[in-house]
Amino acid sequence: MSKKSIYVPLRTKFIVLFCLLITVPFLVIGAISYKKYTAGVERSTVELSYQVVNQININLEHYIKELDRLTLMPLYDEDVMHILQSHSGSGSASTYLTTDETLKMNLFISSLAFDRGEIESILVFTNDGGIFSNLDQSVRKRWDRSMAEWMGSVKQEDGGLAIIPPHNAAYYTEPKQGIISVARVIREPYTNKMLGIVKVDLTPQGFGSILSTVRLGGSGLLQITGKDQVMLYSAAAGLPDSSESYITASAQSAYTGLKVTSLIPRTQLREDARELTNSTLIVSIIALMAAYAAAILLSNRLIKPIAHLQSKMRQVKRGLFRERATVTTNDEIGQLTEGFNTMIGEIDRLVKEVYETRLKEREAELLALQSQIHPHFLYNTLEMVNMLALQGSTRELSGVVTSLGKLLRYTVGRQDPMVYVLDEVKFVEAYLKIQGMRLGDKLQAVIHMDSSFDYCLVPKLILQPLIENVIEHAMGPDTVHLALTAAVQEDDLILSVKDDGIGISGERMKELEEQLYRDKSRSVPESEPGGFGRIRKGFALRNVHQRLRLLYGEPYGLYIDNTAERGVTISLRLPMHWEALNNAEPAGERQEGA
Predict the structure, then answer these.
(1) What's the pTM value of the predicted model, to 2 decimals?
(2) Sign, CA torsion 528/533/539/543
(3) Can you tell me the distance from the alpha carbon of 428 to that of 100, in angstroms, rounded to the nearest whole number?
(4) Alpha-carbon distance 417 to 462, whole Å?
(5) CA–CA separation, 52 and 49 (whole Å)
(6) Contact present, 271 and 285 (Cβ < 8 Å)
(7) Highest mean pLDDT, choosing among 33-37, 389-393, 499-503
(8) Residues 45, 216: Cα–Cα separation, whole Å
(9) In whole angstroms, what is the distance from residue 62 CA to residue 451 CA?
């Protein structure tokens, strides 16, 4: 068996569909736009970063060239060269610096450092350990090997400009750390003999003045590295975060060997993208809410005619074929509504025709069943009259004829299909009087019927066939006791005829049940022996059962119980009806016993 699907209202389906059609494209477009925007910003940032670092690299070359010229100036001053030559020895005998030498050198160096705020100091180191500087008070007059760790890298350049990364300057009276310098070995032009070293110490603002004109924004970094990737200067404190992803752009100078690198965190770009996304998201959410509201209104407008048609279909399902749906739209739903109205009108017409035809057939069938009972009464009674006439029992014959007249007036004179229980019981009492004269003490009948059931309506002639069935089939050599009772069970009326006669065998019970409950009764051929007055036995009970089924349907009808040790109980199950009969009065007071 296929699994039963879950019921989902059409309105819900439309709303979900509309929301998906609105939301999914929005999310896809938003994601694509975010990625495209981020990639575009990143690409633009990379291009801009390369332009920035190239410009910084050009400015840095100009700056280093200026420092390079400063370091070359001693070669063009004869007094400076003469003083250096006089101190070119490595011994300590010529270490003494005269006042004239100091004055000339200080004057020369001060002229070089004039108006250069990014220069900490300019120093000239002689071979014999002397130091000339523009800072008389804060620089020592002599140097030794412990203060000259940086000289190795200067001498390696062999007269070329050396850029010294951050180092300790111990030749200051208060040693300084992290000094960046440029230096050059001064050689005698003709002999190429080393005369000393000129060194320019830069302040922290040295490279900073070059990078200060550039703004990367946010947490972007600018770095200057020298040979072997040694950090010379960083525009931000500390090193880049190793856990962060950066967009890098770099440019290296062929002249100085310095490398300028910019680092911009990707999170910074995403923050800009998120700001744009957030502002876009606010506008989009407002647009989505408006779209959802429009979807709900549109779905309501679309579903309302369908819901109206559905409610009319429920009414039709309950049997109200006069219901018609209102056509409110001029579209497929409107055409469906018109078709529904046409279909219901046709169904209403057909139902009326079929129902009226069925009623007529049902009435004809009930009349036919009832007409089969009339001769059944008459045959039994006429046999009794014939017997009494032959015996000459005039008094008994008069009683039988009187009772027979009452029976005929009840069966033939009254055409009411429904009668009171009281009338039906009076008919049974008259019938039992006739049978009592024939059977004598062999039949003892009692009627235990509460008077509260007297005016309950029942079909006509439903009890007499049950009494007759006892007389025809339950009589034996012993006296048979018969009891007619009434009871209420589950709001239904139960009329029972119980006897203690010979009972019904199992085989006969099967035949009787088959005869009672099969669809059509068995016909008796006219050629069967028996002649005039032959009683078709077994059909009375079926007639009663079929009448009840035609009138009330299941579970109403006749039921046989043969489970007792002796006798049989036949019960009739009917609904309780109390409607008053038109122009009908009860037959009179009934008598207990018969």
Answers:
(1) 0.45
(2) positive
(3) 167
(4) 11
(5) 5
(6) no
(7) 499-503
(8) 9
(9) 133
